[in-house]
């Protein structure tokens, strides 16, 4: 089991925390350009992430895009690929380890993207 990091890491658009085996990353705001997210999240992971090191085995990745009003015109598969590329090497070694991938879009109270990553077979999110 991974250590528990108290609270959120990061003060900019990208923040992250660990709760048990779950790593949660949030990105404030939305853009229609999925490619925008890869360098944004990658730089956060490279410069600020001090949590769990990459692990082997199967992982579950859940990506949730929340929008206000009409959803942005963005392909969710492109968003997922950009985000997986950004966290690869930090939370798992290779995206071939992703055994379950859920990508969804919902209307919410604010525009943001939430990523949850945890080992397959663990309890996962609350």
Assign the structural class, choosing from mainly alpha, mainly beta, alpha/beta, alpha+beta, or little secondary structure.
alpha+beta
Q: Helical residue percent?
A: 10-25%
Please indicate the count of domains.
1
- Tell me, briefly, the overall form: globular
How do the helices and strands follow one another from N- to C-terminus? EEHEHEE
CATH superfamily assignment? Holliday junction resolvase RusA
What kind of sheet is the major sheet? 5 strands, mixed
> What is the third-level CATH name, the topology?
60s Ribosomal Protein L30, Chain: A
Count the beta strands. 5
Spans of at least 5 consecutive residues with low confidence = 1-5
Strand order of the largest sheet: 1-2-5-3-4
N-end to C-end Cα span: 15 Å
The CATH class turns out to be: Alpha Beta
Quote the average pLDDT. Answer: 88
Number of contiguous helices: 2
Rg from alpha-carbon coordinates: 14 Å
Fraction of residues in β-strands? 25-35%
């Amino acid at each position: 089991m991974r250590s528990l990091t108290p609270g959120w890491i990061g003060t900019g658009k990208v923040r992250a925390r660990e709760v048990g085996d779950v790593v949660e990353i949030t990105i404030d705001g939305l853009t229609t350009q999925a490619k925008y997210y890869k360098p944004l999240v990658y730089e956060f992971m490279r410069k600020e992430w001090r949590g769990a090191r990459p692990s082997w085995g199967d992982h579950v990745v859940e990506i949730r895009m929340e929008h206000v009003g009409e959803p942005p015109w963005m392909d969710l598969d492109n968003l997922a690929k950009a985000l997986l590329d950004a966290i690869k090497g930090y939370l798992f070694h290779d995206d071939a380890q992703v055994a379950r991938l859920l990508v969804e879009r919902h209307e919410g109270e604010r525009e943001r993207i939430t990523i949850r990553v945890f080992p397959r077979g663990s309890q996962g999110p609350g």
